[in-house]
Design goal:
The complex is a heterodimer of chains A (401) and B (586). By secondary structure, chain A is an all-alpha fold. Chain A is built from 19 helices and no strands. Chain B is mainly alpha-helical and 586 residues long. Chain B has three domains: 196 residues, Clc chloride channel (Orthogonal Bundle); 194 residues, Clc chloride channel; 123 residues, Roll (CBS-domain). Chain B is 63% helix and 4% strand. A three-stranded mixed β-sheet of chain B has the order 1-2-3. A two-stranded antiparallel sheet of chain B has the order 4-5. The longest helix of chain B is centred in the first third of the chain and has 35 residues. The chains are: A mainly alpha (401), B mainly alpha (586). At the A-B interface, helix 1, helix 2 and helix 4 of A face helix 1, helix 2, helix 6 and helix 9 of B.
Amino acid sequence: MSWRFPKLIPRSAPVILLLLTLAAATGFAAVSHLVARYNANQQSRGRKLYQQGLADASANRYDDAINVFRAALTCDPTNSQYQLSLARALRDSNDPRRLDEAESYLIALWQRAPQDAAVSLALARVAAHRGSIDDAIRYYHNAMYGVWNSDPDANRSKARIELIQFLLKKGAPDKAESELMALATALPPTPDAHLQAAQLFAQARDYARELAQYEEVLRFDPANAAALAGAGQATYRASNYTSARRYLQDAVNANPQDEESRQFLATTELILRNDPFAGHISDAERNRRIAVAFTQAEKRLDACAQEKNIDLKATVTPAEASGPALATGSAPSPLLALQSLWTEAKPDLARLRLPAETDLPDAIMDVVFQIEQQTAATCGQPQGLDRALLLISQKHEAANQ
Amino acid sequence: MSNGAPAPSAVVARFQGPRRLFSSLEGVFNEEVFFLILCVFIGIFSGLAVVCFRLAIDWIHLALLGPLPQTHSWRLFAVPALAGLVVAALVIHVFPTIRGSGVNQTKAALYIFNGFIPFRTAVGKFICSGLAIGSGQSLGPEDPSLQIGASIASALGRQLEISRDKLRLMAPVGAAAGLAAAFNAPISAVLFVIEEVIGRWSAGILGSVVLSAVSSVVIVRWFLGSEPLFRIPVTAFKRPSELLAYAVLGIVGGLASVAFAQSIGYLRPRLKALPRWTQYFQPAVAGLLIGLIAFLGAPQVMGAGYDSMDQAMHGQYAWKILAILAVLKIVATTLSFVSGAPGGMFAPTLFIGAMLGGAVGDIERIFFPQLTGSTGTYVLVGMGVLFAGFLRVPMTSVFMVLEVSGNYEIIVPVIVANTFSYLISRGLLDVPIFDMLTRQDGLVLPSLEEDREETILRVEDAMLPVPATILSAEDYVDANERRVQDSTDAIFLVRMHPSGWSTISRDQLQRLFREGKGEHTLGSVLPQQSLPSLYPDLPLDSALRYVNDYPLVPVANRANSRELEGIVTRDSVFKRYEIDRTPVGN
């Protein structure tokens, strides 16, 4: 076999260069054609693999999806959609080792198209997986202000809600609340959006804004049972029991199967009926409520002591009862000290009717509140009247502060 | 003419126009300019060939092994074994010159064959390496690309009948183009060719090699995009104390390099010595064993392995997996290479380094959690470590990591680790891998590492002390004659005015005195031609030019040429060479 080429090229340098240029151009054209055909085949193969990967990912078979997306990327290495899907699969596979690779893909995509909101959102979710608050906020903001291919308002809103949920989960309510306020100003006028915002405000313990969101829903749809129940609970948590009763009653009327609202309503009724510090009641009614609370506190104390096998007949000196032992909960049992306080305060009940004893209602109720708070800490959250008294104590303390 | 046809003179002028243009252009293209332009074309042709070569490997891989990674499939060992049979038959019967990586063949073309590499080599390398790598042999496409480039360049040079001197350079120029296109890294390719193949720097060589490398990279990026071989993760070097960790990586990498090179050096001649008929089956057996490794759970060892390196860089493997992959890749590459399957060792070297780097980094972080380097950083440094230790190209290894990563923050760890690896490899293994392979093939090529490391004798090594008596050309002859009476020397150095040196013998001086020239200054009676002078740092070879013609040659200080550092004589120079030749201990 002969591999020698005939010596065809003339010895003139310009002619040689001309011929070389022609040869290079021909080679370039041939390779262009070859590469184009190869790329077309590869892209077609890549598309099939991509669809397979999407199916695997949607069935939570992330390992398979990762393999298939990788193969798709070998067919079409620069395809942003494949890279984004692979990064998502790597992120969602719950393998912390894969977060680095996911981030690497996403950073590369982000550098190519920093305005791409979908990439920013994926990066934000990686940062959220890592628990990195600052990075998450940065990337979620990029996603909110980036370019969405479809339905930008809804996607932006979703991104902000996701950020808020992340911040609340990570115990950063202040940062969450500022995002919430921004969210509230740009909510679409739909009940679902306002209801979701209200729930987020509730998680951030901003009950006033929570109520405002429910009221916004009720403005359009006064019979919306979810909004009524939510408004009732928001006012209940804000210790605004009069309003809470009204909303909760409406909620129960609108949806008689709403047991949760019914329970809230029952507790609310108990609070309104037994709050001795309510402004509109007579002295006699106040004294009656104090007496009922005082008796209930003893029952609660006895029940809790029995539950914890504590003998309340053991003696505790008044000094111990009012001293640091009670405050710190160290031995002897705080319940014994409370029993002592209750016994000590019992004679005062009779003096409630005397006009000179203006501080006495507060003093007696202070004993009641101490018993309810301590028994709640020792024996768990109470029900019924005890729960009402505990909530009255919290409202009273908040009012005093 | 009445029919409107041009007059004969006008036709002649029309034909003569381009001819005149060409002949006027002839003057522009002297040989140097023409050669540099030719280098650009070599880069273009090599780039086009490498693009096709990469497509061919991908296409063969897809066709034979499928697009998805296979595990526990019969294809894993059947495909490389059957492809091995085909490759062996082609290598034995059609392309006997394509065994091995191609680097040595390019060197041989430069030093032995006057730049001749048959074009058949390019064709054979393209087909057989494509088939071997695409079917899963543990080899890389870089060295074959290098040889394809060199072969194309050599064929072009021969076709154009350029001068022998330039033709010799064509092979390295094409090699740089092929390697740059394969690595998508022009600086590393240029350095490798200069460091390993050519071994010397000059503006002409550097210019031609750079031109070809850059033009080939432009072509590859045009067609295949400018995506780097790896997606580089965030890498950083924060605390200088962490250099210790990288030094440990360098030591481990150096030892692994030695083990890798020794295993190839031990097995290759033994397999070559087996009966000829076994050579038909050696690549197939190697393919079968590699397929078995893949079948048993490590398919990453097949082929070049860039995807796996990418995943290692992003912390996808635990340290145990990384360590196992490094060991298995050494085994697999050794099997592939010694079996005679054509393919390169660059990619496997990077793979082993990457896995080893990741494993060492992860282990170090278990014991020292305060280390800040990511797995990706250690993987990158590890690549350079194996490059420095196995291929013994210290400069290329540093620049390769920097060029591939595009991150100069890790330059210090890379230099430290590579230095350790290189020193350990050089300490434990006398001969670098490429030289070892050359000697096994019965060729004697200049070892560029030996050249680099060779101790050069300098003028200062043969220098005698400054003579006690130095005469002055400004003094009278009788004063100088009195001065030499206290000396036993026969020849005296004369300091000329305003600069320069000369010599005069005792007899000459006394004769001048007797001739009554005692009242003349010495300078006025001496010939005006002054002695050549040397400098202490010059190679001793440069003294050989003068010591036969002059009884002594002054050695001057470079900062002040009137200040004498010493002298050299014929005897002192020859004695120094004799000492250097005498074996130590005699």
